[in-house]
Design a protein that fits this description.
It holds the Pfam family ACP_syn_III_C. It is an enzyme of class 2 (transferase). The protein is α/β, with parallel strands linked by helices and 326 residues long. It has nine helices and 14 strands. It is globular, with a radius of gyration of 19 Å.
Length: 326
């Protein structure tokens, strides 16, 4: 071989420069669900901590909700559509796998000819997508990446199944990841538990979500805090330097269990913890950006603070990284 392959000159680091989210208008309370299944508000809140969730309208889609969130992230970043060179969408709930969501979102936002792909790591998808964007920027493949997590889980949920219908909801979150002189996103720690591939699943093209809730609960409360702690170490950030913990919003008891373990290992007692599950429900790959953006809006989190994110879901997959809040 005589040819020499050259590689693109990348950036020293990347950072998140814009954040936005979208929640559908329709609020569904626990009392609403009690009208169609054997459940009640006390039972739901005791088990998963959810008081209400958002359901998308019939004419809303993964792409349309993703574009709403993406437009807000672009506006905050101060970037025009033509400055975005890559779009990555994390989703596991497309109505049809073709065409993929990223190109549809790019079209809705007027982003011309970007690199465009979806990834499916289920509820861990947002952290995987952030890692992909960070790596694309640092290797020189991209300069400004729109990362979207968007889900319409209600399309894949059996409405009267209280094991899943009380949990899953719809919505989207997005960030813009751009080149930076110094790293604003730490290394990803990711992996999967191949012994539990069928714990959360959809069986067949016309199936619905099936979840072995107790198995997922035991796994998440034991396996996920160490992943987050490893991500902080990989970034060279001490746990007491973490300002905010945002986990995938799966279950309030899981969130609180992870937070307690991280605090016990050295994080501050005043660590801010995202608990958006209570009023948004489980939005899978959209849950971390929605939760963080709503924490900012409530004044709980400020620009420049250090965020530890960790997500987990079907597969079973997991991923975690540290980043600076925009």
């Amino acid at each position: 071989m005589s040819a020499t392959i050259r590689t693109a000159a990348g950036s020293p680091g990347s950072k998140i420069v814009g954040l936005g989210h979208y929640r559908p208008d329709r609020v569904v309370t626990n009392d609403d669900l009690a009208q169609i299944m054997d459940t009640n508000d006390e039972w739901i809140q005791a088990r998963v901590g959810i008081a209400e969730r958002r359901f998308a309208a019939a004419d809303e889609s993964v792409a349309s909700m993703g574009a709403q969130a993406g437009a807000k992230a672009l506006a905050e970043a101060g970037l025009q559509p033509e400055q975005i060179d890559t779009v990555i969408t994390a989703t596991c709930s497309l109505d049809s796998p073709v065409p993929h969501a990223s190109t549809q979102i790019a079209s809705l936002l007027g982003i011309h000819a970007p690199g465009s792909f979806d990834l499916n790591a289920a509820c861990a998808g947002f952290c995987y997508a952030i890692a992909a964007a960070d790596q694309a920027v640092r290797t020189g493949a991209s300069r400004n990446v729109l990362v979207v997590g968007s889900e319409k889980l209600t399309d894949w949920t059996k409405r009267d199944d209280r094991a899943t219908a009380i949990i899953f909801a719809d919505g989207a979150g997005a960030v813009v990841v751009s080149a930076a002189d110094e790293p604003g996103i730490g290394p990803v720690v990711w992996g999967c538990d191949e012994d539990h591939t069928q714990t959360i699943r959809i069986e067949g093209r016309n199936g619905h979500f099936i979840q072995e809730g107790q198995t997922v609960f035991r796994w998440a409360t034991s396996a996920i805090a160490p992943v987050a702690i490893r991500a902080a170490a990989a970034a060279g950030v001490a746990l007491d330097e973490i300002d905010v913990l945002v986990t995938h919003q799966a279950n309030l008891r899981i969130i609180d269990g992870i937070a307690k373990k991280i605090i016990r290992e050295g994080a501050r007692q005043d660590l801010k913890v995202g608990r958006d599950i209570v009023t948004t429900g489980n939005t899978s790959s959209a849950s971390i950006p929605i939760a963080l953006d709503r924490m900012r809006a409530a004044g709980e989190v400020s620009s420049g603070q250090v965020v530890l994110s960790v997500a987990f879901g079907a597969g079973l997959t997991y991923a975690s990284q540290v980043f600076v809040c925009p």
